[in-house]
Every structure is written in C-alpha cells, then in structure tokens.
Specification:
By secondary structure, the chain is α+β, with helices and mostly antiparallel strands. 31% of the residues lie in helices and 36% in strands. A hairpin with a 3-residue loop joins strand 5 (114-121) and strand 6 (125-132).
C-alpha cells in the first residue's frame, strides 16, 4: 500500500487510522547518521560529565559562573536526551507529537485549516511543507514516493487548498 517496501527510517505504517508516518528527532535532524539510542547515550554522558564538574567545583569551594553554566548545560543535556518528535498524517489531519521523558504533547492541524502544500524535490528526499495559518509543518519523505504522496494529498486536501510543486 503506502511505502511498505521502504526502510523503517523513511516511511512507517503503524496503526489503521494513520496513513503515513515520518520520524523526526530534534537532535537527529542535524546528525542524521546517528541513531536515537546513540544520541540519548551521548546526552546522558555529556550531562553527567558537566554535572560532575559543577558538583566538584561546588564542594571545592570554587562555585562560580562557569560552574553554574556547567550545571545548567548538564541539565539541558539530560532533558534533550529524552526528547523525540513524531510527525504523521492521519484522516483527521497532520499530527505533531513531542515526547519528553514520558510526557506527550500532541498538536493536530485539521485538513480544513491547510491553505497550501509545497512539494520540494531535493537531492536525497522529498520535502512536503504544509502551510497551516502562520506555521509551516515540514515532513520529509523518500524521493521515490512522490506519486503516492501527491495522490494522497489530492484525496485528503480541501477544495480551496493549493498544491505547489518545485522540481529540481
């Protein structure tokens, strides 16, 4: 049906009500070659190292602005190591889930609210940008699934929405 032959990193089918799903992680968006577990381990390791430096300088009596910065940066590393972001398309619209250490924040943009869709074909992937009000939600897909995605969008988008294609 929809991308069943694709690798799990690119297109995933999960539940019956979900049509397409693309996983995007905040840290992996810049380091695409590193898997999620490696980024989590690196965040926890770096956070522990920075917290250790802050605590050791506190007990040595040298707690200054540098140690406070280390403590703050260590806490941010712990927080970011547990973050994950998932964007997917459902029958209701585009769903954005941000998961942070067990807490899930879910935002849904219904199909009626979408004003235009831009399909940009890049070197490695196909980026579909949905314009919802003043926000733009971008979902990357494999380049060879362009026909399937265009058919899906023509079926689900309201009559007033425009589909703009930018081939390269």
């Amino acid at each position: 049906m929809w991308g069943l032959g694709q690798s799990p990193k690119v297109l995933i089918l999960r539940f019956k009500d979900m049509i397409l799903e693309r996983r995007i992680t905040a840290l992996r968006s810049t380091w695409a070659l590193a898997p999620k577990w490696m980024m989590t381990a690196a965040g926890i390791f770096l956070g522990t190292l920075l917290e250790y430096r802050a605590i050791s300088s506190f007990f040595a009596g040298e707690f200054d602005r540098g140690a406070a910065t280390n403590a703050f940066a260590g806490l941010l590393c712990y927080l970011c190591s547990g973050m994950d972001r998932v964007l997917y398309l459902t029958d209701d619209g585009i769903v954005s889930e941000t998961r942070c250490w067990g807490r899930i924040i879910r935002k849904t943009a219904p199909w009626i609210a979408i004003r235009s869709v831009r399909i940009v074909s890049g070197n490695k992937c196909l980026t579909v940008a949905f314009e919802v009000g003043s926000r733009v939600w971008k979902l990357p897909f494999p380049k060879d699934s362009a026909g399937e995605i265009e058919d899906l969008l023509e079926e689900l988008l309201p009559d007033g929405a425009r589909i703009i294609r930018f081939p390269r």
